[in-house]
């Protein structure tokens, strides 16, 4: 990762929202966006204590706000976008990162529909609402913004379990491509980042292990053997690229960040 102290600030003057921003990939992206000069950043999550603590920790570096937002409630998402514009004047970047995994295995023969519906409400409905309201705001203000969604390599390789999660991330890819096509005429870019296995708090909770144990179990699954273990910062770097002007002619793209993941039977 470039040292922002010795490179140009890639997001100088921009206003960004990150859903699911209180921990994991979202938290790492918050820090990186701040390093690269965002004028204001809004952290949206339902983890209030973590979100408020994170916002307070970086509030001296840029304008930073934490907003409680349940992305399954469209009114929450609409209010999130409207309050951001009221407070900071404009929205340039929306990172639709909020998501969950089922703790149950969710194989097709044991498929639990209520669990699937809850997961889809967050992983798909929440992303759709976020793109919708961010897109509307950008169109209205004539802002050539960037919308980034968190998908997963699971959408491309399948899995012997977590069927609902894999389905949801496939749907996010389709949603991104439709939104990219429809918002392209307004100069708004829509892309996805698809991480490989990375020891986020969410994945560690699902696996029932700590971060070190999770990283140890992933260590031999990457083609890049001498580059260490995949970290949330590697995903955040990709999000930064898609948010910045360095990707100004990229839209409808799924940027895979997986170190050459080699696990053929799919992620656990």
From TrEMBL:
It comes from Hibiscus trionum (Flower of an hour). SUPFAM superfamilies: NAD(P)-binding Rossmann-fold domains. This is Short-chain dehydrogenase reductase 5. Pfam families: adh_short_C2 (PF13561). It comes from the Eukaryota. Belongs to the short-chain dehydrogenases/reductases (SDR) family.
